[in-house]
Each structure stands twice: as C-alpha cells, then as structure tokens.
Amino acid sequence: MKLYEFAPNPSSRRVTIFLKELGIELETVQLDVRAGENLTEEYLAKSINGKVPMLELNDGTCISETVAICRYIAQQKQNFSLFGETPVEAGLVEMWQRIVELDGLYAGFQAFRNLSGVYSDRERCVKEWGVESKRRVEEFLPKLDKQLATHPFIAGKKLSIADITGFLFVGIICLKALEIDALSDYPNITRWFEMLSQRPAFQ
Ligand SMILES: N[C@@H](CCC(=O)N[C@@H](CS)C(=O)NCC(=O)O)C(=O)O
C-alpha cells in the first residue's frame, strides 16, 4: 500500500495526522504538486481527481479524497475512534467534519487558489471568487468559536477527524495562506488550537 502525498500541503497533512493518531505508518511517495508532478499521464491514469493525497492498494485499487482514504484505513484497522463510535457520535462527527471542510477549509482553498493564482498554470482563477471565499472564511470563524465555547473538541467531548480538518484550516489556511488572524479575536479557537498543537501527531 502506497500513499501519494506532498507532505507540506494541508490535504496530505490531514491523512498524516489521522494515521499518526492511530499509530499507523505507510510507505509514501512524494509528488511536488506545485511543480505539476500530479499532472503526469501516469498519475492521472490512477487518480480520478488528479490531486494528492491518493492511496494505492496492493491490488492496484486507487482511492482519492482525504476522507475516503481515512475511512478505508479506519475500516481496515476496525478503529473508528476518529469517526465516532456510537451512532450519535458518528452522526455529529460526520456533520462537523462536513461543515468545517465545506464552509472552512474548502472556502479557504478557493480563496487562496483564486487570489494567489498558485495553480494558474492549470485552472482559471477568478479574483472576485477569491475575495468572496475569503469573506466566507472570515464569517465562518465565529461559528467555530461558538461551538468550541461549549465543547472541548469540535464534534463534542472527543477528538475526531473534524478537529484534524479544523486544525489545518486554522493553522495553514487562515494563519499562513490567507493571513487571517483566527486566534486573537477567538479565545475558544485559541484554546482548542493550542491544545491540539501539544499532541505529537499534530506537530
Ligand atoms: N478534495 C480533495 C482535495 C485535495 C487537494 O486539493 N489537494 C491539493 C493539495 S492541498 C492538490 O493536490 N493540488 C494540486 C492541484 O490542484 O493540481 C481531498 O480532500 O483529497
């Protein structure tokens, strides 16, 4: 089994943190996506979305999409701790994972990609969409802060995949890529972010 990734980027790090939390190590293949190593014919023949991460199984089956990869690993190891173990936990984890991914992380990706033009060699960039997406990210932060005011972790009492998504949204997308100060005005995000930063898997 091989994990194709570009170690520094947020989607690859989501899988890496997930694996580390479960104590799993996989063989990795690094693809420099900024240099277009994910756009070769050979890679596109395996990867439906042409992005990293992608997991190639020993029988040649290829699984793209971060959460799909994490689900495969959870099923294979029969370890559902990060997806929620009771029906209620699983429902809430799924709900928050999707909210943080769609309203936070992916809005942030759209903002960064369209404003910076980092991938303008392979996609149309629309500045107005970047500006609007950045505003959506800024509007999402108070919602996240409110949830964390009454819950230690995003989906409730336990660490979950929603926290991994949220951590990369705040740490890489807000603070670094978009230079949005997601901490000063948000004490609950700050408490949660600092707590996760102490965990070995998140370092
Ligand atoms: N929905 C995908 C998104 C993956 C994604 O956006 N990967 C980026 C790096 S963070 C990538 O491969 N970018 C290169 C490109 O778009 O050509 C997932 O969750 O796996």
What does this structure look like?
- The chain has 203 residues and is of the alpha+beta class.
- It folds into 2 domains: 2-77, Glutaredoxin (3-Layer(aba) Sandwich); 87-202, Glutathione S-transferase Yfyf (Class Pi), Chain A, domain 2, CATH 1.20.1050.10.
- Helix content is 56%, strand content 7%.
- It contains 7 helices and 4 strands; from the N terminus they run βαβαββααααα.
- A hairpin with a 5-residue loop joins strand 3 (54-56) and strand 4.
- The protein is globular, with a radius of gyration of 17 Å.
- The protein starts with a strand and ends in a 6-residue tail after the last helix.
- It binds glutathione.
- Glutathione binds next to helix 1.
Q: How are the SSEs placed, and which strands pair?
A:
Elements: E1 2-5, H1 10-22, E2 27-30, H2 41-46, E3 54-56, E4 62-64, H3 66-77, H4 87-116, H5 127-150, H6 161-177, H7 187-197
Parallel strand pairs: 1-2
Antiparallel strand pairs: 1-3, 3-4
Bound molecules: glutathione.
